[in-house]
Structure formats: C-alpha cells, structure tokens
Design the sequence.
DNA sequence: AGATGCAAATGATATGATCTTTGGGTGGAA
DNA sequence: TTCCACCCAAAGATCATATCATTTGCATCT
C-alpha cells in the first residue's frame, strides 16, 4: 500500500441511522422538502403520534430538530405550522440531502453550483498561500491521476478523484466554512455523473485546468490558481446548465 | 410614509426566546462554543437534569438539537460526548451567533469575511442579470443615501444603510443560499462597527464603490458589478485584518 | 361596536417505568 | 499468559400518563 500517496478516500457512507427518531425525522423532513406538507399547513402532536405510532417523546424531539432548521414553528393553541422555504437553513447538510432527493433537486443543484462558482476560486486562491508542501505535492499528483483516469475513460475512478481533488482544495483553504462545503461539492459531482453529464471522456481542457490549479497552488501563485479554478467552474456551470434546462422548465420567478 | 422607497428595514430583533428549552440550549451551546465543554468530554442526561433543574423531556429535546448541529453524539452505556469543532454545522445561524459571542469571535469573523469575499462579488454578478427594475432603482438610491450619511458623518445610519445595501444585493442574486448569508454579513458589519473599525468618515473610495456596484447592476453589467464588489471586499478585508491582528495573536496552525 | 372574561385546545414540562444497546468485566479454554 | 465467548449493569431510547401554562375563539357584558 502506498504510504502517503494521494489516494482516494472511500466515501464515509452514513449507516442508515436506524431508530424511531431518525425514521420520523427522515419522513417528515422529506415530506416538507418534497412539498407534500405545504407551507402554512398545520399539524398537531397527537396526530403525529398516531400517524407514526410512536410516543410523544419521539415526536417532540423530532419537532424540536425540525424547528431548529426552520422547517416548522410550534404555537400553542394552534399546532405545528410548516414554514415557507425562505425560512429553511439551506446550508444544513440534512436539508440539502432531502432537497436533492426531492422534486426540487434541480433547483438545489443549481444553487450549489452557483455557490461553488463563487467559493472554489477563492478557496484555490487562499490555498495557494496556506497549503503545506506535502499537501501541495499530493494535489499535483491527484491532478495527474485524474488525467490518467480521464485518458483511460474510467469514469468511475475519475469521479472519485475529482471529488477528492476539490475536497483537498477546500481543505487547504484553511477556512472552516469552505471546508464544510466539501460534501455539497461531492453531491453535485455525483449528481452530474449519475445523469451522464460527464462527457464520455472528460474534456481535455478540464483535465488541463485541474493540473493548472494544482500547479499554481503549489507554486503559491494565488491569482493563477483562482483564474484556473474560475475556468473550471465556468465549464462545470455550463454542463449543469444543460442539465437543468433539459429537466426543469425555465426556472422560478426571478 | 414613503411608498416603496429604499428605506432601512428595522432589524428583526429576535424576541429573546424564553422557555426552558431555549434557556438550556443557549447555555449548553454557548458553553460548547466557548470551549468550557471540551471536545471528548462526556455528560450524561441525569447530570444535566440536576444541573439545570429541568425535566428529562427538556434535556433530551435540547440534546437532539445539539446533535443535529454536530455538537454532541449520544452513545448508550457511555453518555453524551462533545464532538470536535470540525463536526459542527458552522453555517447554522445559532452556531454563528454563539461563536461570535465566544472567545473564538475573531476566528469566526475572519471566516465569514473570507466567505463574503468569495460570495458577494458573484452575487453582484448574478444580481446584474436577475434584478428587477424597481429593485435596481432602490439599490442605486440606497448607495446615494449611504453617500449622504457618510458625508454627514452619521455612522449609525451609515451602518444600517450598509447592511441593507449588501442584503439587497444578496437578495437580488436570486440564489437562496446567498440570501441566507445576509444575516452573517449584518453580523460582520455590526461587529466592525462596534470595534470602531469604521473610519470616522467612511473612505471616499468605499462610497464610490458602493455607487459603482449599484450602477453596474442597474445597467446589467455583471462583470463591472463583480469588479466593483471585489474592490469593496478587498477594502473590507483589510479593515478586518487590522482588527484581528490587534486582537488575536497570529492565527492558528495553517 | 367594543371591551371583558371564560374555557377549550394544544404545546410545554414533569415523572416514572420499561426496553434496548453496549462497554467492560469474568471465567474458561488454548 | 493470552484470547475469546458470555454475561451484566449502565445509560440512552422509548413509552405512557399527568399536570401546567398560554393562546385564541367565543360568549357575555357594557
């Protein structure tokens, strides 16, 4: 086994969270994200106790969590009211997971892609001045492996390397908030893959740009790293755009 | 009352949330953010029941919420373990509030400022293509009021206008995730103000740049809007930098 | 019409019991 | 001695029930 080589970390793969609390939370969260429970509609605790055949404790704990992410608001004498999407904590990983599994999936992908477009170039810029020697070497190595996988047409491997590459850039940015976006990026890339948006062989340009980003970061050239990442984002954005233009209608109000 | 003029919206000012749940949550959240409860240390429910003199219902509901933001992990036969900061949902508004009130305040301000630097320029770019006619007019008007307040040396009013300006740009970006960052921006600006980082009279340049951003957005010139916002961010970043260089030591590991 | 007060509805909190999981100890086998 | 299967008590998870507190609709009073 390679000692400290830039290998692909296996996805954590959360263990399905059994337990009544998790089950009810999952069900309600999905229902709200999916619009099955429209904003403004009202539930009450006893009703939920019956519907899910669990105790009040479980229901109340779930409701507290839902309230903390802005999904609901409990009011005495009224019940539990579903709040509009504008109140949701759209950065909560759970919310993102639920939305990616719902009908609003394309809207979510679009939001995240725009966020990436804003954040990743700056992350690359910061990484150039904060990354350690070894990490920089690994990054360059990772870009090389991506090139190899791309040439070989190994889409699966390319995807994992791609995720790992962006993950490491965010990590090297040294900003805790950027770091937390790595899961979102992984989701977007995986989503893109699942919809066969990955061109059969990744664009030659994309491969080169990953290499450029890595090299610029290693050379501590923040501006060049940013520029290269911007180009990467533009390409990724175009691919995404074709995705949601084919799936979703135009898009919302604007 | 002015019909639809770009007036400053009064801050919502959350109503202090009384109730046992809120009190205990607040206390524990603050303690964890403040490092009084170190990662790895273990609590147990009955202990908390005693310490806060509340029922288990309340404690359990609080723990569920804390678990959902990654602060703790409950394990049978062990107790409730405090998780390391790397597991926290650093985008959760509550977490941000707690951290801004803790010793890690400067680190939090730094993270958010970097995030702003990444996001706001892109938000301005997107706003240029998505903003409505009236909103654009309001934005320009707001920049004009900022100029007036700056000239008059009315720091208080300038702060509110500044917050409102950035809020509207994020809103006009049409990206739900960007919109959710408005509270963070408000926190940063307020924090800067409280530490007397606002130069007595705002820099002439800053005033001009706000006007540039507004105008570029109205003219639907995304690139120019982005550029102007980048300059604004650079200046804001410099001000912040002097703030945390005077308060915090160097900064962490890197 | 408007103020006032009562009472039902519903969430908030308290309490005690039982179920389930699991870390650690124990004893026997290799 | 070392290791592993097994057992038990500790602590969270869930349940059931009771009481408290607040809000709101409505009837009543002025």
Sequence:
């Amino acid at each position: 086994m390679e000692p400290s080589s830039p290998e692909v970390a296996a996805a954590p793969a959360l263990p399905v969270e059994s337990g009544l609390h998790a089950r009810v939370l999952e069900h309600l969260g999905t229902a709200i994200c999916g619009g099955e429970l429209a904003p403004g509609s009202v539930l009450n605790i006893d009703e939920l106790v019956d519907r899910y055949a669990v105790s009040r404790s479980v229901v109340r704990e779930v409701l507290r969590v839902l309230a903390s992410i802005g999904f609901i608001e409990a009011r005495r004498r009224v019940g539990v009211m579903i709040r509009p999407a504008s109140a949701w904590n759209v950065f909560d990983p759970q919310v993102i997971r639920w939305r990616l599994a719902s009908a609003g999936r394309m809207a979510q992908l679009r939001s995240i892609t725009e966020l990436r477009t804003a954040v990743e170039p700056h992350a690359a810029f910061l990484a150039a001045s904060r990354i350690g020697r070894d990490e920089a070497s690994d990054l360059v190595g990772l870009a090389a492996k991506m090139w190899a996988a791309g040439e070989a047409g190994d889409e699966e491997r390319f995807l994992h390397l791609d995720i790992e590459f962006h993950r490491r850039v965010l990590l090297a940015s040294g900003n805790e908030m950027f770091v937390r976006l790595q899961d979102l990026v992984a989701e977007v890339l995986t989503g893109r893959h699942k919809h066969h948006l990955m061109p059969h062989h990744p664009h030659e340009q994309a491969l080169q740009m990953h290499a450029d980003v890595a090299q610029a970061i290693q050379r501590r050239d923040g501006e060049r790293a940013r520029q290269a990442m911007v180009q990467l984002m533009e390409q990724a954005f175009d691919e995404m755009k074709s995705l949601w233009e084919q799936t979703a209608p135009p898009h919302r109000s604007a």
Remarks:
- The interface with chain A takes residues 21, 57, 60-62, 64-65, 68-69, 85-86, 89-94, 107, 111-112, 114-115, 117-119, 121-123, 126, 130, 174-180, 254 of chain B (CB under 8 Å).
- Residues 20 and 54 of chain B are 7 Å apart (CA to CA).
- Confidence is low (pLDDT under 50) at residues 1-6, 9-13, 250-254 of chain B.
